Amino acid sequence: xxxxxxxxxxxxxxxxxxxxxEKIIWAYKLEMEKLGHEVDIKYSKEVQQGDYDxxxxxxxxxxxxxxxxxxxxxFTMHDHHSEVFGKFSQCFxxxxxxxxxxxxSLVPAEHLISYFGSPSxxxxxxxxxxxxxxxxxxxxxxxxxxRLLCVGxxxxxxxxxxxxKGFGLALEAAQELDLPLTVAGPKSNxxxxxxxxxxxxxxxxxxxxxxxxxxEQYGLHTIFLHPSIIEAGHPNLTLLEAMSMGLxxxxxxxxxxxxxNGILRVEREVDQIVFRCKQVIDxxxxxxxxxIRSAHSLTWEYVSERLCSYYKNPTQVTPEGAAFAEKHVQxxxxxxxxxxxxxxxxxxxxxxxxxxxxxxxxxxxxRLLDAENLGIPIEFLEGVDLRxxxxxxxxxxxxxxxxxxYSDWRMESPSxxxxxxxxxxxxxxxxxxERWDTNxxxxxEMGCGLSHINAWNKGHKENLDKALILEDDAYWESxxxxxxxxxxxxxxxxxxxxxxxxxxxxxxxxEVVDDFFVRPKFSFNAHAYVVTxxxxxxxxxxxxxxxxxxxxxxxxxxxxxHRRVDIEKVFPKIMDGIAPPxxxxxxWQESLFSHAESDVxxxxxxxxxxxxxxxxxxxxxxxxxxxFHVNFLSEGVSVFETSLTxxxxxxxxxxxxxxxxxxxxSEMSNEVCWSHKYNDENxxxxxxxxxxxxxxxLAWMPQVERFRKISKSRVILSSFWNGLFRSEYPEIEFIxxxxxxxxxxxxxxxxxxxLDDRNLSGRPWNKIALGEVCSDILGIPYREEKAKxxxxxxxxxxxxxxVCISTSSTAGCKHWHxxxxxxxxxxxxxxxxxxxxxxxxxYMDLKGLENVIFPDTKDSIEEAMAWLYxxxxxxxxxxGISWLAHSLGKEVIMIAGFTEPYNEFTCRRVIxxxxxxxxxxxxxxxxxxxxWCPEHKDTERQFECMETIKLEDxxxxxxxx
Length: 961
Hints:
By secondary structure, this protein is of the alpha/beta class.
C-alpha cells in the first residue's frame, strides 16, 4: 500500500524530544515499511485525491479539511482535551465530526469508544513500544537501590499548574518512602513544581530529554509512577517504555483487553501509591519480569500489523468506505502472507485450552504463537466452565455423565503434615498453596480438570504422535517456546510427558537424565506440557473423570507419584516424565508469577462504596476470571452498565446522591447473584464544603442538617467555618478540611462546579438558589432555612441605636455608589451607621464615607458578629456579611440587581425590574474581570442593574422605628 501519514505540523518527525503523536507517526512509518508498504509523511495540503491508498490523519481540524476536499481518510483521535472539556465543548464536537466523516477512526484508549457514542467506524488501537531500543538490562536491585521515576508533560491546555500526571502525589509518596524521585519532561513542568513550592532534597527535575537520554533515565530507575488523572492513550507511551526496560509501574492504567501484569493499579491517593511501591520492592524480580513480558506483547510490530488489518477491512459506513475496503484487500493480502517454516519439532498439533469468554487470552496467546512461526496446526479447545451453574445443576450433569469428584479430596483434619505443600515448596510465597487439599474443589478447578481430560481424550482419539497442550495464560519470552520444543525433541531419554514449565513442590533432588532435563518430582502447574501417543493412552486409562481432582495433581502423579498415599492408589505413577530444572523453565503461567488472575475461582466478595462516586469492586482470595454484568440503576433506570472480571472494579462518574441500586449478574447464568440498594440510614456520610466563602457556608449549613434528619445518617462535615456551627449542630461531627475520616459509607462534595457537568450537580448552580446547590447534590427537596451560628461575645459596643451596612464585595457588578446618601439619611433619622467589612471604605471604585463608625473586623468574625447582633437592621449587597446578618436574625435590606431574588434568601430586596437585571443566571461569571458586565460592558448601560437604584428605593423598605 502507498500510505500518507499526515503530520500535525508543529514538531519535526521524528521528534528531538517531547512529541507523543510525532513518535507514534514515526513508529508507524518504520514498521509499515518493514511490512513492505510505502509510507510518506506529508502535510495535509500536499495530499491530493487519489495520490495515496491510505491517508491517515491525527488531528481533527486537518481531518475535517480532508473531508471538505473529498479525500477519504483514517483518523486517530489523540486529544485528551475531549474528555477534559466535556461533551459540550468545541474540542469534543470537532473530534466527533472528524470521526463521523472518516472511513475509519481509531482511539488509543478503549473507554473512548463509548465516550464518543460507540460509532460503528470507531475502533481501539493501542500504543506500542520499540523493545529493541528500550531493551532490558540485566541488573541486581537491592532494597536500598530503588529510585522512582515520573515522565510526561503535566497540565491541561494552558493551565500548566494542574497536576494531570500526578507529580505532586508522586512527590508525597517519595517523601513518605524516603526514596529519590526524578521527574522528566518538558520545561513547562517547572511551573508546576514552583506553584507547589516543592522542597525535597531527593527530588530531581530534568527537562527536554532526547530519546537516548530518556532511555538512560529508565535504566537508572527501578519503579515508574504514573498516577495520571486522564490520558488519551491506554497504555500511554512512557508507561510501555518503562515496562520494556523492566520497571514495574504503579499507576492508574485501566485497560481491559491488555492485562499488563507489570502494572499495580492505584487510585490517585498517596497511601495507595506508597502501599503498592512497597509491594513492588518486596517482590521486585517477579514484578519486573511481568512488566517486561507485558511490554513485549505490545510491540510496534504487533500494533502496526493490527493497524494493517484495520486498513484492510474498515467498517463500511459510507460508499467511500466500501470502495476503500475493496481497493485495499488485495494489496494487503500480498504483503500479509508470510512463509511458514516446516515443522521440524515432531509436534503434530498444539491444543490451547481457552474459555469461551476469554477472547482476550485467545488473542494474546495467538500473538505469541504467531511470533514463534512454528508451522504446527493450532486448535483451541473450549474449556469446561461450570461457574455459571448452580451446585444442583452440576450434580445432575455429573450424574448424567458418570463423573465424580474424588471422594477423599478434602482432608478436614490431616493426621500429619507430611503432605503439606509448605514442607516441599520452592515457591517464595506459598500462602495460597499451604493447605491446597484441605479446601473443597472450586467450580473453576473442576472445569479445569475436565478440560485437560478432554484434551487427553482428543489427542488419543486423533492418534497423535506428540501434542503440545497449553492453557491460555501460558507465557514465554520470544523464542523460548521454540527452544523448549527443540530441546525436548533432542532428548534421548525415555519419556511420555514433558513439562515446558512447572513449579517444583518437592525439596528432594531430581535425577538428571541428559545434559539438561531431569525426572520431575512432585510439581504443580499444567499450563504447558507435551504428551506422546503412549502418554495419551495411559492418561485416558486413568478414567480421571470418575475421580476428578485438580489437573496439576493428576498430571504430576502420573510421572512422579503422589505425595498422599490415598491418592497414589487411585492415580499411581504410570509413565516417565522429563522437565527442565526449576530455574530454567521455558514457559511460565501468568496467574502464579505475576499475581494476575487464572480461571480458578475462589471465595468472592462484592464491596460497594459511595465515597465521592458509587463504586463496586469484585474480589476473591484465589484466582479467577469469571465475568459479571454490572448495572448501576437510579430509580429503575440504567445509568451505567459494564462487564467485570474478579479482582476488578467499576465506578460511575455521577457524584451527587441518588437512590442507587447496583445489580451484579453472572454472564454465564444471567442470574442476579448480588445486589445493593443505597441506604445511608445509620451510616457514616461525609459532606465537605469545597468553598471558603462565608455566604456559601451559611447557605449550605441548614441543608446539611436537613439531610441528616431526612436520611437519618451519621453526618461528618468538613467546612472552613466549623467554629460558627459546631455548638449549634451537636448531632453533626465536624472535622477540619483535609482531615481523614474512616469507615465511610458515602461522601459528597458541595460546591459550584462546571455548569455543564450533570455528574456533580443535578441542575446548573446559577439557575437555582445558593442553598439549593447543597440540597441538590445531597438529593433532598430544598427548603429555605437560616443557618444557626454561635455568638461568643454579645457585649454591646455602641449604646446609641445604629444600622450596620457593608459597601464592598468581590466584583464591580455588585457595587452600588449611593452609600453616603444612605448614611446622611440615617443620621438625620437619629441612627448612627456602622460599616462592617474587611476592605477599606475606598475599596476599588468606592469613595470614602463620612460620619460612620468603622470598627476593625478584618481578622475577627466574632467582632463583626457582636456589632451586627445589636444593630437595628442591616443594609448590604449579595455578600457573605448579608448572609451572616440574616443568620443573626436581623432584618436585611439587600441591594442586588445582578441576581434574581430567589438566588439568596427572603429579605427586603431592592432591585429595578425595569432595568437590565439577573445576568448572573444567564452567563458564566469570570472572577478575573472586575468590571464583569456580560451584556453591556464598556457601554453607557454598564452596571445598569445597580446604577438605576436610587436612595428613595431603599428608603421605601427601611424598617425605621
